[in-house]
Design goal:
Elements lengths: L1 H26 L26 E7 L3 H4 L6 E4 L8 E4 L2 E2 L5 E4 L3 E4 L5 H14 L7 E6 L3 E6 L5 E4 L7 H7 L7 E12 L2 E7 L19 E6 L1 H36 L1
Parallel strand pairs: 8-12
Antiparallel strand pairs: 1-4, 1-7, 2-3, 5-6, 8-9, 10-11, 10-12
């Protein structure tokens, strides 16, 4: 009798242990990474200028008056009931042809260039045109953002201040995946050169480090699929709603029947 109970307890323990191990494998990231192994990082994270990008381009010189014609004016705007307004620089919007209209220099084709390549292009034109001998040019993105949606804690669009953001960093900004998010089905949606690409990633594998979408580009969308548990929960909620309505209808029918009996 005791042996039978002991056997049952052992079987139950093994089932619980196996279920726990299986659950862990579903949610742990980078399971195949070897500890202390160093990997070379390829420079795949350079951001290139696309159409509809908004660029801030500032030109400076030892003589501020020489640089003044090449800079956009500062505009002041007020937020809420603040007494003092905030200032920002108007940006250059890249048109559908990949061009911007720059003061004095005229139309510049900037699509496909990196931020640093555009900086060097403007400096070269300012020097060769004998406008400024010692120009200091700064180029920044004003609308560099990525969006994260699906089964994450805080879905939304996030503005990026630097030139680099990885897929893992974007998910961290969104509060990480919820328990209902599929770690093996994280999609990155990218529009580039008139084409839309959707690439799925398995966060449990170190293969994400070699993905062309590991370093995100501006306006990329990250989507985390829900797992079967989430879908099952939705079905349960729908069934519960139906049950509530059926119960309400049954109560109303009983009350109506009672009223008919009383009135007779």
């Amino acid at each position: 009798m005791r042996i039978g109970k002991f056997t049952k307890w052992m079987l139950l323990s093994w089932v619980i242990l196996f279920s726990a191990c299986n659950s862990t494998k579903e949610v742990v990231y980078l399971q195949d990474v070897v500890p202390l192994k160093q990997q070379d990082i390829e420079r795949k994270y350079e951001v290139f200028i696309h159409e509809d990008d908004l660029l801030s381009i500032m030109v400076n010189s030892k003589d501020p008056e020489l640089a003044l014609p090449f800079n956009m004016p500062l505009i002041t705007y007020q937020i809420g009931s603040e007494s003092s307004g905030q200032q920002r620089v108007l940006g250059y919007l890249v048109d559908t042809n990949g061009d911007i209209d720059f003061p004095i220099l005229g139309k510049l084709h900037v699509a496909g260039l990196s931020r640093l390549e555009l900086r060097d292009l403007i400096k070269e034109k300012l020097i060769s045109g004998d406008y400024i001998k010692d120009p200091v040019v700064t180029v920044q993105f004003l609308n560099y953002k990525v969006s994260v949606m699906g089964e994450v804690a805080r879905p939304g669009s996030f503005t990026i201040t630097g030139d680099r953001i990885t897929l893992l960093e974007a998910l961290s900004m969104a509060g990480d995946l919820t328990i209902y998010g599929r770690r093996d089905r994280v999609a990155v949606i990218r529009e580039e050169n008139g084409k839309r690409t959707i690439l799925f990633h398995d966060l449990r594998s170190s293969d994400i480090f070699t993905s062309p979408c590991y370093y995100l580009q501006q306006n990329d969308i990250v989507y985390v699929e829900p797992n079967k548990a989430k879908a099952g929960q939705r079905d349960i909620n729908q069934n519960n709603s139906v049950s509530v309505w059926l119960s309400a209808v049954s109560v109303l029918a009983a009350v109506a029947s009672l009223l008919v009996t009383v009135l007779k």
